[in-house]
């Protein structure tokens, strides 16, 4: 893996060079084995938390882990194009707009003992801006090359906090162009229901049940492209014990192994039935 500045990453993207790199500020990774029409993102995978913030933070490491999306990068790491955050959403949230990306409180609990100094905020927001600068270059290149693209926006959520039955997998589609893309969202939901999980976990999937897909990653890409579909895909944390802070690697591995084929097959259908059928592929 290389260490690259955002400008170096963008130069490679513009020249369609494959690469696997970490940003020079160590805030995100980007792997491009080949340039294709589908991208996987895991913006909440990160757990890093800048040391200068520790003493001022009222949340424990466990508190932060509980609200992060551990292992979401691993679930899709076998795919040819993957971008993933390395920093905790408690430093800055890549799935929020810049003006709300730094929390004052989180899930009803005050986050900071004293308000963050402006220079610390700006240090975090500069990483947020850098990430989206690269995202913009990448999805623009995908549309330039293929005429359209699909992005699998991977997340997880704490199912035990709900007081009703919730799906193992939730798709949020409120902010996509449903007139053009609802069939692809439904097909993705249906495909995910066929994933077989260890320990006799029944795989259920639903659209807009627990979350509606209101994240900034989805909205940013949707607003800055013409023909790109972003599917916000949330796995409930059946792959860990969210209260006891224990991961179940065999469940994560099962998801990863089955998404290899399921995701590629769905992306291929999108390519055939949307990009090719609508004549979007540049000549």
From TrEMBL:
GO terms for molecular function: hydrolase activity. Keywords: Hydrolase. SUPFAM superfamilies: Zn-dependent exopeptidases (SSF53187). InterPro entries: N-FG_amidohydro. Pfam families: FGase. This is N-formylglutamate amidohydrolase. It comes from the Bacteria.
